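Intended use. Records such as the LysM domain-containing protein entry shown here are meant for training and evaluating sequence-to-structure methods. They are not intended to support clinical decisions.
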Amino acid sequence: MTAYAAPVTAYQRASFERPVARRASRPARRLHAIDTPEARRRRRTLAAVIVAIAVAIVGPQAVAGDEPTVPVAFDTYTVAAGETLWSIAAALTPTGDDVNETIGEIQALNAKESSALQAGEQILIPSLD
C-alpha cells in the first residue's frame, strides 16, 4: 500500500491542531461578588452588626470621664412677666458674689445660649439651700 501526502493549507492545519495553552506559574484569581438583592441585604446587615458591636464596645468609654461629677442641686422657677435673667440671677446671688457667674450657671442648667426669657417659661435655677 502506498501513502500519498496531500498538501494542507495553514487554515486547515490550524483547525486540526490544538492551541497550546500557556499557564502562568501562579494564575491570578479574582473573587466575584454576587450582586443580588439578597447578597446586598446580607452585606448591609453584616455591616450594621459590626458597627453596633463597635459602638457597644467603644461607646461607654467615649462618654465616661475620668473624674467623678459633682451632683448639682437645682430648683424649678417660673418666669414672671417683666423678669430678666439678670434680675433672677441677682436675686439668687449671695452678697459679694458675681452675678455673671450665676447667670452662667443658669444658662448651663437650661442649655441656653442667650439670656432671652418668656413669661410663664419654667427654668432650672441653682438650689437655694
